[in-house]
């Protein structure tokens, strides 16, 4: 199976309106910049996007929100995007907010084939609304269902032609669990090497989870808020 594609445009050519997408990253760290740019250029609409956050107004998923491509966001933090806020308050955008740990576990469970799990996070809040509650060891837990997606878009530091991935530092974040949970996982990497060139002990995501891979280009790697002493 040849997994290597020339670029994001060809790797995502069969993404269609109405699909559910997972997009790795945390803030702007480790986001699939090339994949997002290809989706904006393609103009697909009515998407459900599962991502820790919604980017910023002029970068990341924020670019897709500007073009009204997203119907629903499933996220844990959305505080850096004024356009997101505007669309939410005006009723243009459907939003499901999830505790961050629950979001990570729902993605991981989806990739592991676990349909649902109980967690105490969110009990007694709006997160609990209409969810089954059970008690374990004297503590209330709510039922959360696993998440999967038609496509998962992830970004890694290095990958090989078999789809094995290595992430760098905090850019690892949501990328590995989302890579497991996509029916088709598309990985963009800064460096693409031949199969067998990676140290097996350093691989974070095995190639069995990755169906398509390409070498990205022109990464900006923006920082939302630069903090100095």
UniProtKB/TrEMBL annotation:
The keyword Transcription regulation does not apply. Keywords: Transferase. PROSITE patterns: COA_TRANSF_1. SUPFAM superfamilies: NagB/RpiA/CoA transferase-like. It comes from the Bacteria. Pfam families: CoA_trans (PF01144). This is Succinyl-CoA--3-ketoacid-CoA transferase. One of its GO terms (molecular function) is succinyl-CoA:3-oxo-acid CoA-transferase activity.
